Amino acid sequence: MRSATAKLWWEQIQSVIRLEMKKTLFARRGLWIYVLALLPVVLFAINAAVASHDRHRSDNIVSEGTKRLTNQDLNSVKLGMTSDEVFALLGRPPVHIRWKERKRSESGEVSVIPHDQYRYSDGSHDLLLDFVDSKVTSIQIGTGFTQPDGAKVFAGVFQFFFLRLAIFFGCLGVFMNLFRGEVLDKSLHFYFLAPIRREVLMTGKFLAGLLATCIIFVTSEVLQIVVFTSQFNPAARDLYLYQNHGLQQAAAYVGVTALACVGYGAFFLAAGILFRNPILPAASILIWESVNPFLPALLQKFSVIYYLKSLCPVDIPTPPGTPALLALLVSNPDPVSAPVAILGVVGVSLLALYVSSVQVRHMEINYTTE
Amino acid sequence: MKEATRVISTTDRIVFEDVSKFYGEILGVNRISLAIPPGVTSLVGPNGSGKTTLMNLMTGLVRPTRGRIRVLDCDPDEPEKLFKFVGYSTQFDSFPKGLTGFQFVYSYLRLGGSDTQTAQQMAWRAIERVNLVEAAARNVAAYSKGMRQRIRLAQALCHNPRVLVLDEPLNGLDPLARAEMIALFRSVAVDGCFVIISSHILHEVDAISDQVILLSNGYVVAEGQIHSVRNEIHEHPAQILIRCDRPRDLAARIMESEQTIEIRIHNDGHGLLIKTKDADEFYLMMNRIAMNGVEIESVAPADDDVNSVYEYLVGSDEVVR
After folding, report:
1. Helix A338-361 to helix A304-311 angle, to the nearest 10 degrees?
2. Long-range contacts from A44-50, C-beta under 8 angstroms, 24+ separation
3. Model confidence pLDDT, tens digit, residues A266-315
């Protein structure tokens, strides 16, 4: 008897998911969610293109150089050295640019200073030397985009853009509309007139929203990882993925993305059922999540971001001099273990879903007052 | 006219017990007590009289502010049980986006837990019943008003419900389709089902109903079979139309009766329009007259219809024809 009921509920949930998926994934009013999800992919793609161009240029400099250089060679150049001394150390420069600087004196006279710019590379670092009167007047060593730096940049984009903005607002757009959108379209009665428990209907709608947001945001996250790692040469990529925990980090990001969809989805589903105007609850949740680090320890636990931050695989460093407020936002002084964090997200989500199920059971169809 | 309190069996009736519904401070319906039997029952009243509220209450789309409702002993708060035997064609003219007519009915059945094959068979059967097979593959958004009305009927009918609730089901239908639908409702009612129909077009109701519930401003002003209701309205004399060849002679005979209040010769000169205090007594008298050799073509009540009854009860201002 119980298994027959469970089977019926599951079939009904599947029916709801089938109906909702089409609406959620292909709704014209949801196009902005795709834009939001794909924005970091575009950012990483642009970065990868620039990095690839720089690497290609460095490779050209190396191949055209007369000597095979090391990082130590590049660092041995000092200010004031003559061009001959530099040539003796590094060989003839593969790239030589001449340019003229126009300088106005205090009396108003314009003088022209000829500059020579030489560029060397060891393959990873580019050295840019500026000469005036055959003496080194400026040294710049450009460090390529290293894996540790890249991982921190990726973590920053994930935590501050993808998690707190893209997924947050994407879930708002999807889950808030599951019931509220149908009330505005005056089509919710289609579901309410069917022989289906309201709680089962709510579960089906939640799972449909979850599936849709996971498809959108997990796909985006995977694409971000692929594009991000594509900027490294194959050997460096293998090193990052298989020896420097790159794969584990990627899996953690995908998991956090899915959990964020669960958590924010449950919150916004409840908000869409409880409130007529979505702006107020959305703003409240955004503020609640943003001020989470400043809340007392107990209240912190009733948010999604508290647990998600603990699950993020790479900490974002706070350089000395970072404002205290920003440092508090970035840091996670009281992280919880991964199992506790996962249970925490699931726990607050279940709490929000329970509130939704009670409310949806008593929901009335009264389109004229909307 | 109304029975304020009574013992009501809930197992084979749609029962409202002292039900009120307020939308904030606005009255939907007030202190409704009803026990609706099987057959075609029409909810009659002008716009805003509470017909749709009553239907939404019995289908759980809205909840009573006070009172209790049972639909064949089922609580409307339990849609998972209620809609196994209730079908509701609402007045809401919106549909889930992107569905064809067939998908609209089919999805409804699948939501109820029917398997693919059963749902397909039942959906096609319902679509056939409302004559919409040719348009079933088209998107509902492209349907005319009449087609949308019919696909809603198909959805309400598709699972062979015992209780069929239809809110203004004939709106938007052409005369032929109206006749077909009326025949369909009758056929459903003949099988012992409950067909609850709301309408503000009173002459339409006459053709369909076994009983009527007359509503005005959220109150039930009368309920029951229309003839019984009419007989209870003593303050308005019954009007009877008599068709005969010699109306003046007949009028002279009828004038002798104490029950007769007013006699008018019909405009075409071939009949009389009588107002009488006691219709039953009058009919007996007509039998006696006929036996005495006066030729009478027909005798029929002239105000024994919903329209007249509603006018007598509520006033001519509220009657919608």
Report:
1. 150
2. A44/A154, A44/A157, A44/A224, A44/A227, A44/A228, A45/A227, A47/A145, A47/A228, A47/A231, A48/A227, A48/A228, A48/A230, A48/A231
3. 999 999 999 888 788 888 888 888 888 788 878 888 888 888 988 888 87
- Alpha helices (H) along chain B: 51-58, 79-82, 101-111, 116-129, 145-157, 175-190, 202-208, 226-231, 247-254, 279-291, 306-314
Statement: residue A64 has pLDDT above 90:
no
Please judge whether B92 and A189 are an interchain contact, meaning their C-beta atoms are less than 8 angstroms apart.
Answer: yes
Cβ–Cβ below 8 Å for B111 and A15: yes
Contact B113/A190, CB-based, under 8 Å?
A: no
CA dihedral B159, B160, B165, B171 (to 10 degrees): 90
Task: Work out the number of other CB atoms within 10 angstroms of the CB of residue B316.
Answer: 8
- What is the enclosing helix (H) or strand (E) of A7? helix A2-26
Q: Which residue of B has its CA nearest to A193?
A: B83
Q: What is the mean pLDDT of residues A234-239?
A: 81
Q: Exposed/middle/buried for B42, CB within 10 Å: 0-12, 13-18, 19+?
A: buried
Q: Are A113 and A103 in contact (CB under 8 A)?
A: yes
CA angle B212-B214-B218, nearest 5°? 140
Work out the end-to-end distance of chain A between its first and last CA atoms, rounded to an integer number of angstroms.
Answer: 40
Indicate if the pLDDT at residue B19 is higher than 90.
yes
- Hey, are the CB atoms on B62 and A367 less than 8 Å from each other? no
Pairing between β-strand B211-216 and β-strand B194-199 as defined by DSSP bridges: unpaired
Helix axes A198-229, A168-185, angle to 10 degrees: 140
Query: Would you tell me which residues 253-272 of chain A have a C-beta closer than 8 angstroms to some C-beta of chain B?
Result: none
Contacts of A23 in chain B (CB under 8 A): 96-98
| Residues β-bridged to residue B163 | B86, B194
Contact between residue A149 and residue A242 where contact means Cβ atoms under 8 Å apart? no
The neighbour count for residue A26, using CB atoms within 10 Å, is 12
In this prediction the ipTM stands at: 0.79
Which residues of chain B does A197 touch, with a Cβ-Cβ cutoff of 8 Å?
Answer: 79-80
Candidates B61, B95, B108; nearest CB to A194: B108
Inter-chain residue contact B63 with A191, CB threshold 8 Å? no
pTM: 0.81
Q: Supply the DSSP string of B155-217, one letter for each residue.
A: HHHTT--SEEEEESTTTT--HHHHHHHHHHHHHHHHTT-EEEEEES-HHHHHHH-SEEEEEET
Distance CA B53, CA B30 (A): 11
Q: How many CB atoms lie within 10 A of CB A84?
A: 9
3-state secondary structure of B153: helix
CA distance A36 to A159: 14
Nearest residue to B285 (alpha-carbon basis) of B304, B257, B263: B257
Could you tell me which residue, B268 or B63, shows the higher pLDDT?
B63
Closest to B112 measured CA to CA, from B152, B76, B69, B160? B160
Give the distance from residue B317's alpha carbon to the nearest chain A alpha carbon, in angstroms. Answer: 26
> pLDDT for B246-276, tens place per residue?
888 888 888 877 778 888 888 888 888 888 8
- A4 touching chain B per CB within 8 A: no
Q: B24 contacts in A (CB within 8 Å)?
A: 369
Region A156-172 average pLDDT? 91
As given in the structure block, the two tokens for residue A177 are: 């509309």
